[in-house]
């Protein structure tokens, strides 16, 4: 949450001016004190490009050996200006008032005059070796800050250390998004409204800017725009309605998708599975770190945090007919926002058997631990047993007559398991398991080579 302010305020006094210029601007024998503003011969006019150059003949800053050039700038009370330095030179801009108080130091430099008067813009080299031509490009920034916000709408304002409050009227219930962006400080938003509603955000938007999105009821709201640390600078507030169809239900159906809005805690749904099979449940969100929990018949329980795409939640498993409880929540308990839940029938034919046959392949679902099969070899020969899965790190073990034993983890294609060897006639025990003891779909095949 560390976005450094582009504005630095503080009173440095005449000592700083002396160091900047490299020589006293007033003498002990003189009652006349020359300020930076007073010593600036060249004038900077807002809206006009000004060319300059730092050379060995430019005034010297004895503190670090850099050179500088100063310009007089006249501003009216309330005037907001932005000044940028253009060119190959590595420079720093500072702004002083007529009392030699440092008001701002940044690039670009933005400043709002609290009173009319003359100011000094000082361009300094970043190092003692910073020389060359430059251009100063300046413009007046027009604010449209009325204190009233509308939907949709955009407001540009200036924060002078203290929070700024706005009135927002919501006419229609729905999902809305409010963004506060600034290149000058770390933004923060607080929204208060009917029936004790309150929401706030600091870093929820892009580049650590503030962003609020929520379902808002009709009524009048108060929006407070502020900074994480009492800062000064330019900001923009954008308000838009989100075109989202929120599904008002607590029931999930196979091969369907719902949109929902999580306010706090968790949301619970009922899911009825009519036919045994492999199903996939996805919870997706760009605002929440989604977490899914599914509980059902015969002690069934599954949970996932990041198993889906883009760190979303996904639970894939073999489900028996029955009623299941699906709980959707955010890993960070106080998070709110839009999410979707989708239920899909994977249409995978699970082979209900504990026997393997040469020349055949089965699909199976590993719930936990391991699955065991019986394999009968009728004739001596070379055989290949493959266990394949995109969900499991497969491990195969085969035990048989005369102490026969073989095991493999990654001997097949794509790190799957494969055992190839000479098998004598007899009955063999084939054990399929996952290296990480997790569940998922896999296939087993036996071929005579």
Task: Tell me about this structure.
The protein has 449 residues and is an all-beta fold. The chain folds into 4 domains: 13-140, Jelly Rolls (Sandwich), CATH 2.60.120.380; 148-242, Jelly Rolls (Sandwich); 251-345, Jelly Rolls, CATH 2.60.120.380; 355-448, Jelly Rolls (Sandwich), CATH 2.60.120. The chain is built from 2 helices and 36 strands. It has helices at residues 13-21, 36-39, and strands at residues 42-44, 50-54, 68-75, 80-86, 91-96, 102-105, 109-112, 117-125, 132-140, 148-149, 153-160, 164-170, 174-181, 187-193, 197-201, 210-216, 219-227, 232-242, 251-252, 256-262, 266-273, 277-284, 290-295, 301-304, 313-319, 322-330, 337-345, 355-356, 360-366, 370-377, 381-388, 394-399, 405-408, 417-423, 426-434, 440-448. Strands 1-3-8-5-6 form a 5-stranded mixed sheet. A 5-stranded mixed sheet has the order 10-12-17-14-15, with no helix packed on it. The model is unreliable at 1-30 (pLDDT under 50).
What is the molecular shape? elongated
Work out the radius of gyration: 35 Å
Mean pLDDT over all positions: 88
Low-pLDDT runs of 5+ residues are 1-30
| SS element count, helices | 2
Q: In the CATH classification, which architecture of the largest domain applies?
A: Sandwich
Please summarize the sheet with the most strands. Answer: 5 strands, mixed
Structural class: mainly beta
CATH class membership of the largest domain: Mainly Beta
Query: Strands of the biggest beta sheet: in what spatial order?
Result: 1-3-8-5-6
What fraction of residues sit in β-strands? over 45%
Number of domains: 4
Q: Could you give the count of β-strands?
A: 36
CATH topology type of the largest domain: Jelly Rolls
Query: Helical proportion?
Result: under 10%
């Amino acid at each position: 949450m560390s976005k450094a302010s582009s504005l630095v305020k503080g009173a440095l006094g005449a000592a700083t001016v002396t160091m900047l210029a490299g020589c006293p601007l007033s003498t002990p024998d003189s009652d006349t004190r020359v300020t930076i503003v007073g010593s600036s011969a060249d004038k900077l006019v807002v809206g006009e490009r000004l060319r300059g150059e730092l050379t060995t003949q430019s005034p010297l800053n004895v503190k670090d050996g850099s050179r500088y050039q100063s310009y007089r700038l006249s501003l009216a009370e309330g005037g907001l200006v932005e000044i940028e330095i253009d060119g190959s030179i590595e420079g720093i801009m500072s702004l002083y008032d007529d009392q030699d108080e440092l008001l701002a130091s940044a690039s670009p430099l933005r400043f709002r005059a609290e009173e009319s008067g003359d100011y000094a813009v000082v361009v300094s080299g970043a190092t003692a070796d910073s020389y060359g031509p430059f251009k100063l490009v300046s413009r007046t920034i027009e604010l449209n800050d009325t204190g009233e916000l509308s939907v949709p709408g955009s407001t540009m304002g200036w924060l002078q250390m203290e929070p700024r409050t706005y009135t927002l009227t919501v006419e229609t219930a729905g999902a809305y998004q409010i963004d506060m962006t600034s290149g000058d400080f770390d933004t923060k938003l607080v929204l208060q409204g009917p029936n004790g509603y309150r929401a706030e955000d600091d870093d929820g938007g892009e580049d650590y800017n503030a962003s609020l999105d929520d379902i808002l009821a009709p009524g009048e709201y108060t929006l407070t725009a502020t900074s994480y640390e009492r800062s000064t600078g330019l900001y923009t507030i954008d308000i838009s309605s989100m075109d989202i169809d929120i599904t008002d239900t607590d029931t999930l159906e196979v091969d369907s998708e719902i949109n929902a809005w999580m306010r706090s805690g968790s949301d619970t749904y009922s899911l009825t599975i009519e036919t045994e099979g492999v199903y996939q449940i996805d919870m997706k969100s760009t605002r929440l770190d989604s977490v899914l929990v599914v509980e059902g018949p015969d002690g069934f329980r599954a949970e996932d945090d990041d198993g889906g795409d883009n760190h979303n939640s996904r639970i894939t498993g073999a489900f028996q007919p029955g009623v299941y409880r699906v709980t959707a929540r955010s890993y960070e308990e106080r998070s709110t926002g839009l999410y979707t839940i989708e239920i899909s029938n994977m249409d995978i034919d699970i082979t209900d058997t504990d026997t393997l046959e040469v020349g055949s392949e089965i699909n199976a679902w590993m719930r936990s631990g391991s699955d065991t099969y019986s394999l009968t070899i009728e004739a001596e020969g070379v055989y290949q047993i493959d266990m394949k899965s995109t969900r499991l790190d497969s491990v195969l073990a085969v035990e048989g007559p005369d102490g026969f034993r073989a095991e493999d983890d990654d001997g097949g294609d794509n790190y799957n398991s494969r055992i190839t060897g000479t098998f004598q006639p007899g009955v063999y025990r084939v054990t399929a398991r996952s290296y990480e003891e997790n569940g998922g779909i896999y296939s087993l095949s036996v071929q005579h080579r």
